[in-house]
Amino acid sequence: ELIAEYLTAALEDDDPDVFIAAVGNVAKARGMTEISAKSGLGRESLYKAFTPGAKPRYETVQKVLSSLGVKVQVSPA
């Protein structure tokens, strides 16, 4: 729940880099080796995808979110 709250707050920022950085922070805190194993993505690729200024693919972000046990939901504004 804490991860979901943190990522939801980051997603509310107008700057999309804030959300990407937050996903990367959570993934690093959980352990990139674990996220890599769960997502099927290479550990080094994950580090590169979530470095500041990187523009990871939507698919990559979705796989990492799934590995963290969370998902993005859309609701009316």
Task: Give a written overview of the molecule.
With 77 residues, this protein is mostly helical. The chain is 66% helix and 0% strand. It has 5 helices and no strands. The protein has helices at residues 2-11, 16-30, 32-39, 43-49, 58-68. The longest helix is centred in the first third of the chain and has 15 residues, at 16-30. It is globular, with a radius of gyration of 12 Å. The model has no long low-confidence stretch (mean pLDDT 95).
Topology summary:
Elements: H1 2-11, H2 16-30, H3 32-39, H4 43-49, H5 58-68
Helix pairs in contact: 1-2, 2-5, 3-5
Brief descriptors of the model:
single chain, 77 residues, mainly alpha, 66% helix, 0% strand, globular
Could you tell me the number of beta strands?
Answer: 0
The whole-angstrom Rg is: 12 Å
Give average pLDDT, whole number.
95
Low-confidence residue ranges: none
Secondary structure: helix percent: 55-70%
The proportion of strand residues reads under 5%
Number of helices: 5
User: What's the main sheet like?
Assistant: none
N- to C-terminal distance: 22 Å
How does the overall form come out from the CA principal axes? globular
- Write down the secondary-structure element order: HHHHH
Q: Helix/strand-derived class?
A: mainly alpha
What does this entry show, briefly?
This protein is mainly α and 77 residues long. It contains five helices and no strands. The longest helix has 15 residues, at 16-30.
